[in-house]
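I would like you to sit down with the pair of lines that follows and say whether tokens and residues agree.
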Amino acid sequence: MKVLMVTSECAPFVKTGGLADVAGALPSALAALGVEVKTVLPAYPALFPLLAQGKEVASFGDLPGGSGRLVEITAEGVNLLLLDAPQLFDRPGAPYTGPDGKDWTDNHIRFAALAQAAARISFDGLSGWVPDVVHAHDWQAGLTPVYLRQDGRTPPASIITIHNIAFQGRFGPHVMGDLQLSSDWFHPDGLEYYGDVSFLKAALVYADQITTVSPTYAREILTPKFGMGLDGVLNKRANALSGILNGIDLDAWNPKTDPALAAPYGVKTLTAKAKNRAEVAKRLDLDPDHDGPLFCVVSRLTLQKGLDALAGALPGLIEGGGQLALLGSGDPILEQAFQQAAKRFPGRIGVHIGYDEAFSHLIQAGADAILIPSRFEPCGLTQLYGLRYGTLPVVARTGGLADTVIDANHAALAAEVATGFVFDDVSVDGIGAVLDRVFDAYRNRTLWQKMQTAAMRQPVGWENSARKYVQMYETLIA
């Protein structure tokens, strides 16, 4: 079976969030089940060294935004098809924004080119390689199913995976000409979305199958609260919607072999976490002799993540005997709130604004618990990293957080299967209440270690989810 992935990011090459981790890890898991995957990815400047080593396998003179070519190369276990279109992707800044932090004004053209290049090779193939399934990810690849339908030939099966429905690729109606799409398709049952064009809505209408990254999130987005305006479209296509839980790369996230750690450890050597905690304390100027639990946050600092509520709950966290290590960036107001908290509670709160992949591994290894008070969370990966590293997740009951963490209620504790703490009220009081539960559990060292052991033994890899994707592919092909 042959599958063409279409994505705007892919770890470890380019990453802004969980989409990249999925796009980087899923192909290997599918390959283990006999699926041959090629991944179409924009050739951003960070990938230019790979362009020089690869082989040109296709060229286009009339993509949206001009010409481009596909260069094939296998790197880090991923078979990449890099879309080399310098006029669109040879730019400073992040994948979607410039150095000023603002979206590129031609993002609609840039990612329409990505989608159209993928659609063309889906029909024409590459030296005899023709995909059975085209699997697009998020709004940036959302026009891929549209171009497949517009071509006129019988297309391969198509899938769109929603990683976060809050990001929809919405542009004014004037872009239709830039996208090389017929105005006949601009209507409420097609591309039109409240007077605009939405790349994600287009995919939801025209893809054969819709998936999202956890079963609970698949149910949530059918409601107005979580559907972000697209719940009506999704309800019309509910029979084509399913949720398949994300996994993580077990080789990249392995506390026994992780080179970013001060000391490796496993289920039987949990005491070595203390050396990692000491290194985190050193890096963030935390009191190294503090004997209460060290909480961590590794996250974008946004309201979605509930971090405004957490900021308000910090005095209670400190009063209860905790410390906090935070790594992340985002909303300037939230950045300032946590920086001020670090000044107010020196030695108890340490903050690193920005992102450092290696440091994120060390923080997971050194902390006792990871805080994820998200108001909505399609899947979440940091709680899976926490489980893998024996760092107990403290999570809101939403999306993939609810699907992956077993709450420390009486029944779960009695059965010794509890892996973290789940709560419902994302507010200062709600976070304070769950922190009280964490402090009580932490004081019982035997109980805490049993929970760590249960967490580290929980399956968090891609094996089960990859099999579900293969089953879906086979059904679509049949």
Observations:
- Residues 377 and 399 are 5 Å apart (CA to CA).
